[in-house]
Amino acid sequence: MIVGLYFAVAIIGYLLGSLPCGLLVGRLFAKKDVRQVGSGKTGMTNVMRAAGRKAGVVALLLDLGKGALAVVLAGLLFRNYDTIALIPFTHIDSARMLAALAAIAGHTWSVFLGFRGGRGVATFLGGLVALYWPAALAGGLVMILIGYITKYMSLGSIIGAVTSFIILMSLNVTQTRFLLPAYPAFEYVIYAMIGAVFIYVMHRDNILRLWSGTERKLGEKPKAETAPSSSHPR
Questions:
Q1: Is the overall model pTM greater than 0.85, yes or no?
Q2: What local confidence, expressed as pLDDT, does residue 181 receive?
Q3: CA–CA distances in Å: residue 115 to residues 21, 105, 107, 108, 228
Q4: Which of 41, 97, 123, 209 could share a disulfide with 67, CB 3.0–4.6 Å?
Q5: How far is residue 227 CA from its own chain's centroid?
């Protein structure tokens, strides 16, 4: 029974994450396929390039919602299993973590888009909002601030994700509740760590361009309206 519930949580999280929100928003706002613009990704930044700022914000909110909803549904499925799975893990928090990670995987490798998608940043933050919102708020603010100052959202995304992990780890170690009834579960720390590493890996091409000074800035239009080949993600 419990194994089946974990399986259901993973499938639901993956399918929610796979919903091609960025693609749909791009077509709705600008009648464009965002996969044929800029990086070819379906996340907020590329939607903004293809269809404008309003479309980017809508795509961001929808991608945040996917991650958050996956966690909420996992909590509902495991509401009667708030027991120890393996110290220090509990079933309900482990299920929430699994759902959030599955949503990121679905967003990045969507079954509806031939296992392509975005880089998982907004979906990562959405899952974190439902897990422990103060860490998500702090990481999101850092992400926006760095992105706004430098005009490099890739840099903001990486630093914001790492910030979320550091905050969660600090609160867990010190058992600080920070406006909530309980301090963050260890599963949430693991989630943030995996998420931060994943986001770093997914931005490895951006990092190379940042070092070489060729990374596109926020708001900068792509030189061509066609995405690179599958062997070169940017």
A1: yes
A2: 85
A3: 14, 10, 9, 7, 16
A4: 123
A5: 22
